[in-house]
Amino acid sequence: MNSLSYILISNENIALSLETVKSIINQRNHDFKFIVVTTPDIEDNIELLHEAMSDTNIEYQIIPSLGNSNKLEIMNEVIDGIESDYFMFLDAGDILPSYSTSHFRKFLGEYDMIVPSLFQKTFTIPQYVDYDKLKQTEDSSQLSNAKLLRQSSIVGVLFKTDLLNKCNIRLNTNIDIYAYCAMILEVASINSSILLFNGFPLYYKEDGYPTLDVLKFAENDFDDEFMDYVDRVIYSYEHAHTEEIKSFIRMDLISKLEIEFDPHHAQIAERHANNKEALNKAVAFIDTFLIDKKKPFFNLEMFSMKFKKDKLASQINDFRYRARLLKHVLTNHRTKNRSWYELKNRYTKVDPETILFESFAGQAYSDSPKAVYEYMMKTYPEYNYKWILRRPGSTRVPGHAEKIKRFSKQSYEAYSKAGFWVTNARTPLHLEKKNDQLYIQTWHGTPLKRLGNDMDNVKMPGTNTQRYKRNFRNETKRWDILISPNRYSTEIFKSAFWMKEENILEIGYPRNDVLVNRANDKEYISQIREKLNLPKDKKVILYAPTWRDDEYIKKGQYNFELKINLEKMYEELGDEYVILLRMHYLISNVLDIKGFEDFAIDVSSYNNISELYLISDCLITDYSSVMFDYGILKRPQFFYAYDLEKYEGELRGFYLDYMNDLPGPIVKTSDDLIEQLSNMSKVEKDYTEPINHFYDRFCSVDHGIASKIIGDMIHKQIQNSKK
Which PANTHER family does the UniProt entry name for this protein (predicted)? Predict the structure, then answer.
C-alpha cells in the first residue's frame, strides 16, 4: 500500500495551526504520517501541538524550525527527507474534510500528482463526498496550466515523492513569487499522470491568496508596491530554469497589467500618472509578446508606454474605457445604467441644494440618515431631498423627498448631481465622488468587534482579508466627514478606517438624539406601545442578539434556533412582562413563537430600533453593539452569552474587555437569564456604578443635537456656495 504524509508548515498563529491539526485528527482514515514543521514564533507552544495529538493513533512528528527562515528552502529540506510514497503540504489554517484521506488513498499509485480544487473555508463543511458533484479530469490534454496552477500554490497538492526525486524537481528558491508555479509546470511537462478534482471540496484553503495574487489583492497602496512587483517579476524571469516558466512569467505580467490598469478601475487616472517609470519598465520587459495579443488597443496603450508617450497611453486607456461603456449602453447591457452614469458623471454639474440620503444600502428609511433628513426637512424645507431605496414604492418617507429605486438610472443621476451624500454604510466603489460633493458618513454603531484595517482575518462570502481591506480603504478615501459617537470610537475609526482626526466629527449618532430628547416623554412612549399593540399593564424586555456567521448555510438558507426557553420564561415572568424579539432580518422568517403570542412579540421588521429602546425596561443582548446605544438610557442590560466558549477566541479580538467592561451580568444559560430577570431591581442596584461608568465612557457625547449639527452644517455650506 502506498504511504502518505501530510506536512504542516506552521506560522506565528498557533490557533490556525491547531485548526489544521484538528482537521487531521478528524480524518476517518488515519493511515498516514503527520509532520509539523514549527517556526521560531510558535516554539513556545509546541506542547500544545503534542497535547492535541496525544490521544490519537496517528503517527506524527514535530520538527523544530530547521534554522532557516526562508519558507521555500524549508519546504525543499522537508521534501529531501520525505520517506512516504506521497506527500501534501498544508498551511496553518487549511482544512481537510474528514473524508479527504479516504478518498485520496483510492488514487495513490495511479497518478504522479493529484490536484484538488481550492475551496474557501466556510462554516458548514460536508461530512461525506457527494459523488454527483465531484468531478475529475485525468486526460492531460484537457488539463490547462490555469487549472493546474489553481491560484498558484503547491500547498494542498499530492505529489509522488519518487517522481520528484528521479527528475530532481524542487522549488526554485531564486524565482520568488513563481516558485510554486514552476514546480507545478515542471511536473506537468514530463509526461506525468495527473488527476484534477473539482466541483466538491476535498481541501479548504485558509483565507489569504497565494503569492501570484499579492498585487491584485494587497491591502497596501498600489503605488507603493507596483515597482517592487515589476522588479520581482523581472528577477524571477532572469533566474527561471526553463523556457516554459519564462514564458509563463511574461504572460502573467501581461495579465496583471490588463487587470490592474483596466480602464474601469476606480483609480486608473492616478495609476497611470503615478506609475510611469514602473509601467515603462514592465512594457519594455514584455515587449514583443504583445504582438500575439488579440486586444489591439491594449497593445497600442502598452507600446505608447514603451516609447514614453505617457499622455497618449492615458488617452488610449480612457478611450478603451468610454468605448466599453458606450457598447453597454447601446446593447442594453444589464449594467447600462451604471455605464451611462460613468459616461456622463464628470460632465454633470453638481447642485449644492440637492441632498441625497441612503440607509443600509437602501434597505430602509432608517437610522442616522433618517434623523438628519427629518431635521432638515422641518428646518430647511426649501432644499431638494432624495432617498435611495430598494423598494421605494412600499417605503414611506414623510415630506417631499423624491424616492428613487437603487441602481436605477435616476439613482445614478441623483448621486452625480447631489451636493451632499448622507449615508450610514459603504456605497458602491464605482460611484465617483467629485471634488465639489461632500460625503458625510454617519456609520451605524459604536465598534465592538474589530473593523476594516484592524481585522486580522476576514471570513465573509465572496472576499478575503486582503481584498476586503483594499476595497474598504478605497471606500473610506471618499469620506469627507465621519460621525463618531464617542472618543473611544474616534480612536478606533482613525485606525480601522484610515481616517484623519480632522475628518471625524465626534458629536454622537443622529439616530440617538431621540433617546436623549424623548427618554422621559411618557406620551411619546405610550404612542409607540400602542402602535405595537402592547398590553398597558406589562413591562417590556427587549431581546436583540447579534448576527452569528454560523447561522448562514448558503444564500437564502439559514440555521437558527431561539436559545431562550420561552415556556419557562413565560411561566416565571409572563404576569409582569412581555418580550420583544428583535432578530436579524435574515433569520426573522424562521422564528417560531407559536403558543406564546401573548408574551413574545416579533419586532424584527420594525425599522426604528430607537423606539424599541425607549419602550423597553431592560435589554438582553450578547455581543451586539446595541449595548452602546441602549447605554444612553442607563437602564439594566443582561448579556446572554450562551455560546461564550465558542466566542472566546473572537472575544480576544474585541476592542473592549468583554468580561469586565459590560454594564450588566453575563449569563450562559436560559435558566440563569430568567433568574436574573426575576431580580431586576437587585441587578439595577448592583450595577449602578458600572452603568454610570459605561455611560461616561460611551454615551456622554450624546446631547440630542447631532442631527441639528449636521443639518446646520449642510445648510451653512449651501449658503456659502452662493457667495
Answer: TEICHOIC ACID GLYCEROL-PHOSPHATE PRIMASE, TEICHOIC ACID GLYCEROL-PHOSPHATE TRANSFERASE
Position 259 scores a pLDDT of: 84
Q: How many whole angstroms separate alpha carbon 101 and alpha carbon 104? A: 5
Q: Are residues 317 and 353 in the same domain?
A: no
Residue that has been written with the C-alpha cell 510514497 in this structure: 85
Residue 134 grid coordinates: 465531484
Is 9 part of a structural domain of the chain? yes
Overall domain count for the chain = 4
Distances (CA, A) of 357 to 63, 207, 387, 418, 452: 58, 35, 5, 10, 23
Question: 210, 233, 263: which is the final residue of a domain?
Answer: 210
* pLDDT tens digits along 540-564: 999 998 866 544 434 444 344 678 8
pLDDT of residue 538: 95
All three cell numbers of 90, joined, read 498544508
Q: Is 704 part of any domain?
A: no
Q: Both 658 and 537 in a single domain?
A: yes
Listed as ranges, residues in the chain with pLDDT below 50 are: 208-212, 214, 216-219, 550-560, 586-588
Q: What is the pLDDT of residues 217-261, one digit of tens each?
A: 444 567 778 888 898 889 888 888 888 888 888 888 888 888 888
Percentage with pLDDT > 70 across the chain? 89
Residues 384 and 416 in one domain: yes
> Does one domain contain both 237 and 291?
yes
CA distance linking residue 381 with residue 374, whole number of Å: 10
488 and 588 within one domain: no
Contact 39, 10 (CB under 8 A): yes
d(C-alpha 421, C-alpha 446), whole Å: 21
- Measured between its terminal Cα atoms, the distance across the chain in Å is 86
CA distance 443 to 706: 13
Q: Pick from 653, 215, 589, 601: which is nearest to 452 by CA? A: 653
Distances in Å between the Cα of 337 and the Cα atoms of 333, 334, 342, 350, 389 are 9, 8, 9, 19, 16
Nearest to 149 by CA among 179, 109, 169, 121: 179
Which three-class secondary structure state does DSSP give residue 510? Answer: helix
> What does the angle CA 352 – CA 385 – CA 484 come to, to the nearest 5 degrees?
80
Smallest CA-to-CA distance from 561 within 609, 585, 593 is with: 593
Distance CA 203, CA 98 (A): 10
CATH number of 634's domain? 3.40.50.12580
Q: pTM for this one?
A: 0.77
d(CA 307, CA 702): 60
**476: region left, alpha or beta (phi > 0 left; psi from -120 to 50 alpha):** alpha
Residue from 224, 302, 308 nearest 256 by CA: 302
Assess if residue 352 is contained within a domain.
yes
* Residue with cell string 498551511: 91
How far apart, in whole angstroms, are the C-alpha atoms of residue 298 and residue 363? 40
Runs of H (alpha helix) within 218-288: 222-239, 243-260, 268-274, 276-286
Residues 129 and 240 in one domain: no
**Residue environment code for 527-553, b if the CB has 16+ CB neighbours within 10 A, otherwise e:** ebbeebebeeebebbbbbbeebeebbe
Range of the domain at 581: 513-698
Is residue 611 located within the same domain as residue 677? yes
Q: Cα separation of 341 and 565, whole Å?
A: 53
Tell me the helices (H) and strands (E) count for the chain, helix number first. Answer: 29, 25
Checking DSSP bridges between strand 600-602 and strand 4-9, what pairing results, if any? unpaired
